[in-house]
Amino acid sequence: MSEQKIDAIIVGGGIAGMWALNVLKRCGYSTVLIETGTLGMDQTFASQGMIHGGLKYALSGQINTASEAISDMPQRWRSCLATKSSVSPKTLKHAGNVDLDGCALLSNRYYMFAAGNTLGRLTTFFASKALHGRIEKLSKPNWPGGFKGFKGTVYALNDFVIDTPKLLAHLAANHANSIFRCEANRSTVTRHPDGGYILKLKDTVLHTTQLISCAGNGSAPLIDALNIPTLKVQHRPLKQVLVKPKHNTAMYAHCLTHIKGPEPRLTITTHQADGHSLWYIGGQLATAGVTRSDAAQVDFAKAELETCLPWLDWQDADFSVLTINRAEPDQQLSVKPDTAYVERIDDFIQCFPTKLTLTPDMADRLLRALSPPEHKLSLNTSHPRATIGSPPW
C-alpha cells in the first residue's frame, strides 16, 4: 500500500466541500475530497438554490447585520457565472471565486409580492435610498409569469436561483479522480504521530497536515471521533413543503401578504420532477412548521396557498413534507449565524457556509486559514469515486 503526503483533505461533498476543492485545486493545493454517500445528498439538495442578498432578513423595515453581511453575494456569484476558464487566480478579484461559466440557472431573478395594500410601512422602506439598486417595484406588464389574476404589488430583486444538481456536476466535472466515496470515521481518518491526519483509502494512505471538515450534519460526529472538544455544532430544523400542482406554473418569489414577523410568509422555488413543475416552499411556513405533525403541516400549507395565491388552482395538488436539519456553528441562544464560518484548531479546520449564498465568503476565509501548498500529488488508486446524488423530489 502506497503512502503519500498531501496538502489538504476535505471531508464532505456538498456545496461547501466541492467549492473548497475547486478553489484549492486552482490555488495549487494537492487535495482530495471524501464523501460518505453521494455528492449533495443532504443540505445542499435540500436548499432552495436561492442566491440572495439578504433583503429577506430586513423585513422588519430596517437594514441589519444579517442583511448587510450577505448583500454583495448575488453579484459575487454572477461574477463567477461570467468567469471564463482561462482566468488565473492572480486576476480574480476574490480568491474564493470559482469558474461557473455556463452553469444553469432556474431563474435569473427573484421576486417579492403582497396582495392589495398589505405591506404597510415596508412600502416606504422598499422605496428608500438605502435599498436603491437592490429592489425594484414592477409595473404590471413586467410581472413574471404566474401572476396572471393577481391583485397587488410585485417587486424584483437582484437575487436568482441556481440549479444545485447541475452546480455540483459543474464543480465535479474536472476533479472526478480527486473525489472518493469514503466514510470519515475512526478507522479511516486518524491522527498521525508526527502531526496532521492519515486517510486510509482502499489501496493508498494519505498523510495531510490540514484536514478540512465541510461535512454539514456529519461535522459533529467527525469532531467527536477526532476528539476536538472546543468545536461545537448546533442544529436548526425546518419543515419544507413540496407541492406538485396541476396548473404546472413556475414561481420564484417570497410572499409578504400580511406578514407578521421578519421572515417571508412563503418562500417559493420551482423545480422539475418527472416533467412536471414542483413547488418547494420554505419561509415562515417551514420555520414554524417544525412544531406541527406532517399531516398538520400539509393542511396548513394548503390553506396558506389558497389564501396567498388564490388566483391559481390548488385542487388535486399533491403535497408532501421534507424535514431538514441544518448544521451550523454553535451560537449563543442558538440564533442564526450571519456570516460564513471557518475555524482552525491545530491541523483541523471546520467550515460552514451557513447559507448556500455565502459559500464564496467561506472559501475566502478558508484560504486565509490554510498553510501554503507544498506537496505534489500523483494519485493512482482504484478506490471508488463519489457520484452526484439526486434532489429529494
Strand order of the largest sheet: 7-8-6-16-17-18-15-19
Rg (C-alpha, Å): 22 Å
Measured between the Cα atoms of the first and last residue, the distance is: 41 Å
Instruction: Report the mean per-residue pLDDT as an integer.
Output: 94
- What is the architecture of the largest domain at the second tier of CATH? 3-Layer(bba) Sandwich
Total helical elements: 10
Largest sheet: 8 strands, mixed
Question: Percent of residues in helical segments?
Answer: 10-25%
List the SSEs and their pairings.
Blueprint: E1 2-6, E2 8-11, H1 15-26, E3 31-35, H2 43-46, E4 50-51, H3 65-68, H4 73-81, E5 105-107, E6 110-115, H5 122-126, E7 135-137, E8 152-157, E9 160-162, H6 164-172, E10 179-181, E11 189-191, E12 197-200, E13 204-208, E14 211-213, H7 219-225, E15 233-244, E16 253-255, E17 266-273, E18 276-282, H8 284-288, H9 294-308, E19 318-329, E20 341-345, E21 348-352, H10 359-369
Parallel strand pairs: 1-13, 2-3, 2-14, 3-10, 6-16, 14-21
Antiparallel strand pairs: 4-9, 5-9, 6-8, 7-8, 11-12, 12-13, 15-18, 15-19, 16-17, 17-18, 20-21
What tags apply to this protein structure?
393 residues; D-Amino Acid Oxidase, Chain A, domain 2; eight-stranded mixed β-sheet; six-stranded mixed β-sheet; 10 helices; elongated; FAD/NAD(P)-binding domain; 2 domains; alpha/beta
Description of the structure:
The structure is a single chain. By secondary structure, this protein is an alpha/beta fold. The chain folds into 2 domains: 1-105 and 162-232 and 330-393, FAD/NAD(P)-binding domain (3-Layer(bba) Sandwich), CATH 3.50.50; 110-157 and 233-327, D-Amino Acid Oxidase, Chain A, domain 2 (2-Layer Sandwich). The chain has helices at residues 15-26, 43-46, 65-68, 73-81, 122-126, 164-172, 219-225, 284-288, 294-308, 359-369; strands spanning 2-6, 8-11, 31-35, 50-51, 105-107, 110-115, 135-137, 152-157, 160-162, 179-181, 189-191, 197-200, 204-208, 211-213, 233-244, 253-255, 266-273, 276-282, 318-329, 341-345, 348-352. The protein has an 8-stranded mixed sheet with strand order 7-8-6-16-17-18-15-19. A hairpin with a 2-residue loop joins strand 17 (266-273) and strand 18 (276-282). The chain starts with a strand and ends in a 24-residue tail after the last helix. Mean pLDDT is 94; it is low at 85-91.
